[in-house]
Amino acid sequence: MPVPTAVVTADATLFRGPVDFLIALGRDGELGVLPNHAPLMTALKPGPLVLRQGRVESCFFLTGGFLEVLPERVTILADEGEPADAIDLAEAQRARKAAEDRLGAQEAGSAEAAQLERALLYATQRVKAAERARTLRRG
Amino acid sequence: MATLRDIRRRIRGVTSTKQITLAMQMVATAKMRRAQNQVRAARPYAEQMAAVLTTLSDRAREYHHPFLAAPEGGEGLLILVTSDRGLCGALNVNTIRLAHRQMVSRFGPGYRVVTIGRRGRAFARRSRLAITYDLSGLPDRPSPAAVRPAAQVAMDLVLAGTVQHVLVAYAAYRSTLVQEAVVAPCIPLGEPARDAAAGAVAPGSDYIYEPDAQSVLDDLLPRAVESRIYQAVLENQASEWSARMMAMRSATENADELIRKLTLTANKVRQAQITRELMEIVSGAEALSAGRS
Predict the structure, then answer these.
(1) How many CA atoms lie within 13 Å of B271's alpha carbon, on the beta-carbon side?
(2) Which of A110, B18, B170, B218 has the fewest other C-beta atoms within 10 Å?
(3) Smallest Cα distance from A66 to chain B, Å
(4) How high is the mean pLDDT in each 10-residue block of chain B (293 residues)?
(5) Quick check: helix, strand or coil at residue B103?
């Protein structure tokens, strides 16, 4: 039995529907959730979120958030997010390159460097999500 | 008695005022719909957040965090959410009056304030309140990131121990006709409003926390604070445009009524003038014929 799943951000609902399997990037690494999972609560790191419905998969890029798993319901409170197939891969790769260059120009350990590292992490994970979106199964 | 020319000039004036209020009404109607949709789109997140928070704070009773509980009294911070512009009825006045009264009675007249909206900022300046931070001039349909700085200032003050209580005042959107001034607790988060807890977590459901309850709470609490402030801003915008639409609608209706009355007066004056002229002609003719005979 698929589990009703909702992916909501502060200003929109990204996804709502039954899901058979999902993969998210938790604080301690990637985790997969099948129906009848034990109740779980975790923070999410920036990264892709993959939802499988039957034979169809969809992918989102989330900048972070929280995953709540209950046997009868899964909720993802995302900070910000977008559907991964809406990401322009070439543009995302350019953004990652730019983030790398900016970080390289900063000396390590400063407050700006920490911020740039985060920006780089976002950009990298966004590229991953866009790449993942290309390999999705579509019904 | 006003002359016909004066009355006609007033009719022209009222008519052009009416054109302006009618145009503003149309604009407000469009913006109101968008703002109302956005409030609705943002509610699921706020509700889920409230539900998760309730479960989590039940689980972690022994965990103390300044965002979860605060002693009575202490210093207070008001986040005053108002509109940037007027022409929206008593909306801002109601919010400001309610918030000011509550803050003074709880924390004395020297409370701090973070203003979101020019109307509230103008009030805070007039009242010589300590404006800690101002975030006026937000765009329509702001992003969560646009509102975050205000939340950050409030959270920093609480973490530094400068203030213990943060309240957020705004006009809650109930419907196009009804907006209600609200002063809601923001920090401590305490008991979240459960009036719309559709799909709330069943009490007693226990989670596996990854990595553990405390660090999940540490991450979640700032988001919960941000969510409350963001929600307040969206509610206030929906209220603002609803109130402005109603204000402009009644202004247009008043103009219509005024034009109707003025037109009636103008017609009466015109008729009186014609009658008087006729009488002058008739009595002039009679005088002439009386002189001939």
Answers:
(1) 6
(2) A110
(3) 8
(4) 86 96 96 94 90 75 77 88 93 96 92 95 94 93 92 94 94 94 88 43 64 82 93 96 96 97 95 94 91 72
(5) helix
How many angstroms separate the CA atoms of B275 and B281, rounded? 10
Of B31, B13, B68, residue with least CA distance to B220: B68
Residue B205 token pair: 């459901």
Report pTM: 0.85
Q: Is the peptide bond before B139 cis (omega within 30 degrees of 0)?
A: no
Please, are residues B95 and B169 in contact by the beta-carbon 8 Å criterion? yes
Specify the number of domains making up chain B: 2
**Nearest Cα to B113, choosing from B74, B149, B167?**
B167
Count of A–B CB contacts within 8 Å?
Answer: 81
What residues make up the domain containing A116? 87-134
- Token pair for B97: 């009056």
Residue A139 lies in a domain: no
| Residues with Cβ within 8 Å of residue A8, at least 6 apart in sequence | A14, A75, A76, A77, A78, B44, B45, B48
* Structure ipTM over 0.85, yes or no: no
Q: Do B223 and A27 touch (CB under 8 A)?
A: no
Three-state DSSP state, B109: coil
Task: Show the tokens assigned to A57.
Answer: 């998969």
Q: Let me know whether A51 and A102 are in one domain.
A: no
Given an 8 Å threshold on Cβ–Cβ distance, is B216 in contact with A12?
Answer: no
For the domain that residue A71 is a member of, what is the CATH number?
Answer: 2.60.15.10
- For residue B278 the two structure tokens come to 């006729």
For B196-238, write each residue's pLDDT tens digit: 444 444 455 577 887 787 788 888 899 999 999 999 999 999 9
CB B66 within 8 A of CB B187: yes
**B242 Cβ partners below 8 Å, 6+ apart?**
B32, B35, B36, B173, B175, B176, B177, B179
